[in-house]
Amino acid sequence: MPENSYEKTLSSLGVNDSIGVSWLFVELRRQFTSELADAVKKNEWARVRDRWMRSGNPIVEQLEKNWVKPTPPELQEYVLRQLQGFRAFVGIRLQAGYPLEHAEGRGPNWIENEFLKLQTAFDNELAGCLNEQDLGVTKIDWMGRKSGVLGLITETWLKPSPSDLKPVVGQELNKLRKHVESQLELRIAAAEAGAEEEDHVDLSLPGVVRALGSRHLIRQVFQEIEDIFFSIGFSVVEGPEIETPYYNFEALNIPEFHPVRDDMDTFYMELPKGTPGQLLLRTHTSPMQIRTMEKQKPPVRVIVPGRVYRRDNPDATHSFAFHQVEGLAVDSDITFCDFTGTIEYFVKQFFGPSVKTRFRPSYFPFTEPSVEFDVSCVFCGGSGTTASGTCGKCKGAGWIELFGAGMVDPAVYGFVGYDPKKVSGFAFGIGIDRLAMLKYGIDDIQAFFQNDVRFLKQFP
Ligand SMILES: [Zn+2]
After folding, report:
1. Dist. CA 309 → ligand 1 center (Å)
2. Using 50, 70 and 90 to split pLDDT, how confident is the model at 104?
3. Rounded to the nearest whole angstrom, what is the distance from the C-alpha of residue 450 to the centroid of ligand 1?
4. What is the CA(434)–ligand 1 centre distance, in A?
């Protein structure tokens, strides 16, 4: 270690971590202790006190200036703590090394009082010990043969004390030594016991069981639907949830001011000022019909599963976010029969072979003709009545509205560059949440979004 390290910064000493800092302070302690021991013999106690702690530019202040202040924040706090410990170390030793002969009014009371201060300093140091290593350092600080505080007192107070005070000093010193020994012994025993306990592992204890999650019912229904359509040659495509009005409306034959836009109260995005055009959260998965046909020549057979958004107030059957599977088949020879056959196949696969289907004429802007598909009520078997009277689910009708569909309106082909004279096809849009509610007897759509584990656990 270089001479007068306290005059240099840590970086110029080549120290940049806590281990290096610890070593510097160990060396400083050694230096101070030997200086004090020398000085006490030569009656130069006051010079040591001034040099380290008190006058002019004392070493502890240089340490603060050179070691603490210019040090990067990640190490600074550590250096500061070490310096605080060092100050206490120096303070206690200066007190213990104070020559008795200089003490004004030194008498038995003064001596008792000084020993009480030392005991308090020891108790504080012991309370700051965090582990066995700290306790070891404290033990050497106080009981070490060469530099311990107790040894220092023996040299500076006990040996030179006049005969009238010697018994008092001896008695107090013994009291302090017993206190230091017994307290250290207690703490060290406790630390060892604690370490032993930490090492002990009880292998007979049961392990920590982590609950495994499962797929959400909506995800499971998506999978069921995808599997059914896979089996008859459809493939799956996915698309963006943020769309342009062109794909969400215009290209689907829903021009601006078309009344159907009123049914789809839409979330428009707030865009930075000056951005041309508009963006919105898609109100159906139908935009992917257009995007798919733009990219792909017929034949097209796709389903589009995904989340869609409408400004609906949440209640038992409405939510501002819900799920759809859009289907599209376009080829040169697709007929209305292919269409109804496909839908019937799907419904029977999904609900079971005993359900009946029917369709009623309806209207959608992008299909012509359009139909509304109904399925015989899965709760009353289509009879409209249950044991307790009229079926509440179908309100006695025996049928439940399932989804809308139809043959693709030839006008739509114009948007994607298909020749409406050569191709034909059908499209359908299935509400997944509604389908899941019907199949699994769930009466509140909100249950899908609340993520209550008691609900989710019923569909492992
Ligand atoms: Zn019914």
Report:
1. 29
2. low
3. 27
4. 15
256 phi and psi angles, rounded to 5 deg:
-60, 145
The percentage of the chain sitting over the pLDDT mark of 90, rounded to a whole number, equals: 7
Q: Domains in the chain, ordered, with CATH?
A: 5-198 (no CATH), 217-456 (3.30.930.10)
| pLDDT over 60 at 1, yes or no | no
Query: What is the pLDDT at residue 105?
Result: 63
Backbone angles phi, psi at 403, to 5 degrees: -170, 170
Pick the closest to residue 241 from 295, 269, 280, 275 (CA basis).
Answer: 280
Q: If you measure from the C-alpha of residue 385 to the centroid of ligand 1, how many angstroms do you get, rounded to a whole number?
A: 7
